[in-house]
Amino acid sequence: MTFPLYVFDAYGTLFDVHSAVARHRALVGAEADRLSELWRTKQLEYTWTRSLMGAHRDFAALTEEALDFAAARCGGVSPNAREKLLSAYQTLDAFPDVAPTLQALKDRGARLVILSNGTPAMLESAVRSARLGDLLDESLSVESVGAFKTDPRVYELVERKYGLKPDKVSFQSSNRWDVAGAARFGFRAVWINRSSAPDEYHEFRPAAVLNGLAALAAM
Question: Which amino acids are annotated catalytic?
């Protein structure tokens, strides 16, 4: 079954959030893997905390704050390493299955859209550097809402923009909490479980669980 609209989370789904540290492992040192995991964890924590407080600050700023916290917990990084890591986050690597899957869906006539916590500038940079611009129709940012996922107003951006009922939209994310939010909103929510993580949020089940994007084109 081909849906008229496929909506993709960006970070962790299309783009490898750990590729920034991977590029500069030598600058970070022995704590590189721990720093990368903590950077991502705190980045997400800050989005949820600020949304609950009603104190929005954009994803680029929170990404910097999260890096500074992670670096401090891991023994620190040099100003040069910090600059390079933040720059690398603007041009994260796309997973190998992304472009072929997007192309297959596009060939079937589907619209392909990003819905992300990222700022418009961050998303533009990531899409351009990964050379996905010809495959994606648009990138929607939470900045027009002033809150992060899983606020229902974020998912409403898709409904308002394209005039489709939620059950006509296939939503893909590697983040189980994002899948839960999308499922509750009414999207056909597909969990791209790249890390074989255990399930959670059992009240809001995904329509499908895939170990990568490639299988999406075969559904």
Answer: 9
Phi, psi of 194 (to 5 degrees): -65, -25
Domain ranges of the chain: 5-16+92-218, 19-89
Angle subtended by helix axes 79-89 and 59-73, to nearest 10: 140
pLDDT at 28: 95
Contact 6, 188 (CB under 8 A): no
Mean confidence (pLDDT) of the chain: 97
Which amino acid, one-letter code, is at 188? R
Could you say which of 1.10.150.240, 1.10.3720.10, 2.60.120.1680, 3.30.750.80 is the CATH number of the domain covering 19-89?
A: 1.10.150.240
Q: Give pLDDT tens digits for 99-132.
A: 999 999 999 999 999 999 999 999 999 999 999 9
Q: Give the orientation angle of helix 32-53 with respect to helix 59-73, to 10 degrees.
A: 130
* pLDDT value of position 2: 85
Say how far apart CA 42 and CA 45 lie, in whole Å: 5
Q: Give CA–CA dist 34/70, Å, rounded.
A: 8
